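Record 1 of the preview.
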Amino acid sequence: MTTQQILAVTVIMLMMAAFVWGRFRYDIVAACSLLVAVAVGVVPFNAAFKGFSDEIVIIVASALIVSAGVARSGLMETVVQRLTPGLTSVRGQLAVLVVTVTVLAAFVKNIGALAIMIPIAFQFARRSNVSPSVFLMPMAFGSLLGGLMTQIGTSPNIVVSRIRGEMTGHSFTMFDFTPVGATLAIVGVVFLVLFYWLVPQRTRETASMDEAIEIKNYVSEAKVSKDSSALGKTVGDLVKSAEGDAMVTSIIRGDRHMPPLPDAVLREDDVLLIEGDPKALDQIITQGKLVLSGERKPSADGRSAEIDAIEAVIVDGSPLIGLSARQLALFDRYDVNLLAVSRQGERIKERLGEIVFRLGDVIVLQGKDSNLPNILREFGCLPLARRPILLGSFRRGLIPLIVLILAMGTTAFGLLPVPIAFFAAAVAMVLFRTIPIRDVYSAINGPILVMLAALIPVSDALRTTGASDIIANWLTIFGHELPPYGALALILVTAMAVTPFLNNAATVLVMAPIATSFATGLGFRPEAFLMAVAIGAGCDFLTPIGHQCNTLVMGPGGYRFSDYPRLGLPLSIIIILVAVPALLYFWPLH
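->
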């Protein structure tokens, strides 16, 4: 090996060691690795930042925005409530998530299937009071397994089909991948459901102070209108969606306060006092199609992207103390709505507008984001660390789901490349105001994108220095000494090992010609070896960087680099043990 090849391999080995060590955050490790690679000359100056324009970065960033838009719509919560109302077992929830994402990934791009299911995973995590990390990594692995089942499920299958067509004149068809792919998917899903506990429960490394805020006794007020889906239903039916995190404390019918018995039937114009966590309040009001009492849109333009809700605590000396919202005429004088009030150690029984503010009360105000800082200053209130408050926010109904389905459909039918389709979907989410502009960049998750962008030129150094060609030659020499099943396993394992350093499509481009000549030299038909390359390139379960699905869940799941092999290594071994005999059975070598 030349000096440059040795340096390229050394930089990558040191980088992987730093990732596994976990002492420094992954984006810092990636950035330092890029600088070292440039310093020793294995990455040219003019290629150092090509990763920032790579389509993988665009796909991951766009998918995060699309997923955030779908989550904000509240549609996923509705789906969970209707399809799995009584499912509380973590293993049962995981089975639903993994099976669904695996089946979806067979027919749409696997990252799209994963993006649509991530909000449901968060909903299940809240229901079971576990970390989302329990669900997200198994779901990502399930999406990779699902992609193996059809030609369009994942990029390696598409690329290997094209290469077979160029080499033999007959490309693989849509369902040529199904017998082996479905076998691996079934075995893999069973393993993930049974051994999900190998994944450590994590919290997001990028978690901010807002996640430390835990105020669960907000009181809000909502009205049953003629268009409410809660009309004619019972109180028990209405609060079911909150899963114990919110309750109706009183029903006001005309001038009477009625006890909120579970079997009390709701009528038009009933006013409900609801107490609970802000997310649970929002679920009840959104799914019941209730109208927040006295709800009026701040500012005449009504542009939802400029309307915000903020939590603030009333401190000593505030002019609000001793007055109610009605006395202050909050909307008429200040152009803000009072959405909820929380008081420590006491249950509030008054209607929202009649609550007399006290020192220490926490209030949720809705108004133009440009005006809220001045209003809080005038009110003498101290804002809490910002966190998403969806209560009272404007939703765009089915639009986010339609946008995502269109993105997945255009990629499935080959109308648009994946980066263009998902970038367009992300822009559509902003244009249709399904996600406020202020939340777009927080949804993107910068550390993940920096890690990806920095690693792309570092990983490519194996190819540009010729180190990958040297490895391929060693592989061919070694393979001639193995039996047929050993030679097939060698190609599969090598493709798995190479994928983290190239992207999965590049792995196929590098490995497929090697596999074909390797098979021909041994006197075998090439189909099983080409399939092995596609499987290996589509099954990176050991790192967050080999496939964008693994990268997509790293930030939301709070995973460390070393977490992936805990579940991924035994799964990889199972895939190898099952794939080799399956390939030999469905694609005979002679």
